[in-house]
Design brief:
The protein is an alpha/beta fold. It has two domains: 221 residues, Spore Coat Polysaccharide Biosynthesis Protein SpsA, Chain A (Alpha-Beta Complex), CATH 3.90.550; 63 residues. Helices cover 52% and strands 15% of the residues. The protein is built from ten helices and seven strands. α1 links the parallel β1 and β2. α5 runs parallel beside α8, α8 packs across α9 and α9 packs antiparallel against α10. The protein is elongated and about 85 Å long. The relative contact order is 0.11.
């Protein structure tokens, strides 16, 4: 079977050659590096190690780089595509385990789960965020996913053709779209090594968390609009009803409503909540 290993890389001159060489030692595959506007010797090191390289003119970020990976990989007409990172935290020796379910037609998308395998080191905020996001993704797709953010995965060309619209990351959206299109997904345990230097993708853990949460909210809005808008609609209606009960209590106790603005505010909360619910229904109809 023809296997293509795609690697996004941004200023990874210290690790990219080793990553490429380790892949070549562990699996017979074509290796495609997508250089995302590196300013160091990433391209030179990747080519010398034996990889093909496609370069962006500037740094576009992970999601756009992933789209380039899929576009270029599909041109090579592969049977299986493996996506891994350029920093060496995922081990090339795990690739055979990763592609096995695809080879055996047991899965269309295989996720290398760090939480089912072994993690040398992961910052607390990233570990907490990864687990929280995975729980939410699991609820959205109706299937338990232990590591929805893993960058180590193998999949069929059909999965590679799925549209990714996010400008931050591809990880959660690929899983959601695959499940919505009724593709099969399995997880296999993988080893996650400690990074030797600072991450290029996560400049600061709080920045990573903020962007990831924003992206997750957008995904939830797009794929579960009734639940997304329903939460805010119900919250607004609840506030309006609480205020309304307080106004009614004041009226029964004192014979006064406590001021017209309170009545207007209560009605406004309730009306706004109903409108938000309607937005959810309309978005859900459009999604289907």
């Amino acid at each position: 079977m023809k296997i293509i290993v795609t690697i996004p890389a941004y200023n990874e001159e210290k690790t990219i050659a080793k990553v490429v060489k380790e892949i070549k030692r562990n699996v017979q595959a074509a290796i495609l590096v997508i250089d995302d506007g590196s300013t160091d010797d990433t391209v030179k090191e990747a080519k010398q190690a034996g990889a093909s390289v496609i370069s962006h003119p500037m740094n576009y970020g992970l999601a756009l780089t992933f789209r380039t990976e899929m576009k270029e990989a599909l041109k090579l007409k592969p049977d299986i595509i493996v996506h891994t990172d350029a920093d060496g935290q995922y081990l090339a020796s795990d690739i055979p385990r990763l592609i096995k379910p695809v080879k055996e037609k047991r899965a269309d998308l295989v996720l290398g789960s760090r939480f089912k395998g072994k993690i040398e080191h992961m910052a607390f905020i990233k570990r907490f965020g990864n687990k929280a996001f995975s729980r939410i993704i699991s609820k959205i797709v109706g299937k338990k996913i232990s590591d929805a953010q893993t960058g180590f995965r193998a999949f069929t060309p059909e999965i590679a053709k799925l549209l990714i619209t996010s400008n931050h990351t591809y990880t959660q959206e690929q899983i959601i779209r695959a499940m919505k299109e009724k593709f099969s997904i399995v997880e296999v345990p993988v080893y996650f090594a400690k990074r030797k230097d600072k991450s290029r993708l996560m400049k600061h853990p709080f920045e990573y968390a903020l962007k990831a949460w924003i992206n997750l909210m957008r995904i939830y809005r797009d794929y579960e609009p009734l639940k997304f808008f329903g939460f805010f609609g119900a919250s607004s209606i609840t506030l309006g009803l609480i205020l309304g009960v307080w106004i009614l209590y004041t009226l029964l106790q004192t014979g006064q409503v406590g001021g017209i603005p309170r009545v207007i505010l209560s009605a406004l909360f309730i009306m706004t909540g109903v409108q938000i619910f309607l937005f959810g229904f309309l978005a859900d109809m459009h999604r289907k």
